[in-house]
Amino acid sequence: MNVRRRISTAALAGASMLGLLALSACSTSDANGSGGGTGSGGKLKVTASFYPMEFLAEQIGGSHVEVSDLTKPGVEPHDLDLTPKQIAQLGESDAIVYLKGLQPAVDSAVKQSGVQNIADAAALTTLEEHGTEVDGHHHTTGDNHSHSESEAGKDPHIWLDPVKYAEVAKGVNATLAKAAPEHKADFQKNTDALVKKLDGLNTAFKDGLKNRTSDTFVTTHAAFGYLAERYGLTEEAISGIDPESEPSANRVKELHDLAKEHHVSTIFFETIANPATAKALAGDLNLKTDVLDPLEGITDKSRGKDYFGVMQANLAALQKALGAK
């Protein structure tokens, strides 16, 4: 992984020192690790690692949960370092919803938290290896296609595929039901409603991208591989899985060539990561720029107030860029 993803020595030391505190906090509030609903008003205290996990916990938990997000709006999730207070808070949770492999600091803290009810999104669906190119036409699920300069490893961006996100939702439902079995029926009802909406979103993408003049889109980092595979598109990322890794000169030349060959009209950038490279490439090629949001957080710059709003905006941006009618 990129050096930016590694936890600093100080953070590791702090996490280790606070491990016992977190475990102690957990054991004093709850001897069996289930918590018993110690949030305000007797609500289940759920800690989510970043926005897509927070959204699932809130949608499924409804009025029975009090959800805290470790990643504040506008913070790039890959960069997150946890404060001692956050590590202690994690240990006091009744349930945790996170995605292993995205945020090393969170992975470390979850491991030593002592919390028993944990939903790991990475274990609830199938992760694949994606490089700077993901070709939805020539690669079946599970195949790997990577340029030599891209990072190898599992792509964590599963929430951008509504089908995979629905699979994760079902797993989160099971974890919350285990943590608060008295609310199991409500959690199931909320999950069914959420999965139905995600099915509708999947249909909207399939139908909305049917009649298109181009299949290829260029974006800042390789966040949209699962989405590309789901709808038969080709994602070409300027950098790899890491949003701020710099592209090689060879990669930039490749992008120049493929943009002309595949009639690319738009270079996409995103709201949180630095858009400079994407805008420079678009300027060189005399192409338009637009936003394709990887939905790692909601801010006042987001084109939508929640997951569904931003995904609909992403669909509209792709339709425009790919000449879909």
Q: Could you give the topology of this structure?
A:
Elements: H1 9-29, E1 44-48, H2 51-61, E2 65-69, H3 84-91, E3 95-98, H4 104-111, E4 118-120, E5 133-135, H5 162-179, H6 184-208, E6 216-219, H7 225-230, E7 234-237, H8 249-261, E8 266-269, H9 276-285, E9 288-291, H10 307-321
Parallel strand pairs: 1-2, 1-3, 3-4, 6-7, 6-8, 8-9
Antiparallel strand pairs: 5-7
Main-sheet strand order equals 5-7-6-8-9
Radius of gyration: 20 Å
- Unreliable runs: 1-37, 139-152
- Structural class from helices and strands? alpha/beta
Order of helices and strands: HEHEHEHEEHHEHEHEHEH
Biggest β-sheet strands, sense, barrel: 5 strands, mixed
Mean pLDDT: 83
How much of the sequence lies in strands comes to 5-15%
Describe this protein's structure.
There is one protein chain. With 325 residues, the protein is an alpha/beta fold. The chain is globular, with a radius of gyration of 20 Å. Residues 1-37 and 139-152 have low confidence and may be disordered. The strands form 2 sheets. A 5-stranded mixed beta sheet has the order 5-7-6-8-9, sandwiched between helices. Strands 2-1-3-4 form a 4-stranded parallel beta sheet, with helices on both faces. The chain is 42% helix and 11% strand. β3 (95-98), α4 and β4 (118-120) form a beta-alpha-beta unit.
Short description:
With 325 residues, the protein is of the alpha/beta class. Helices cover 42% and strands 11% of the residues.
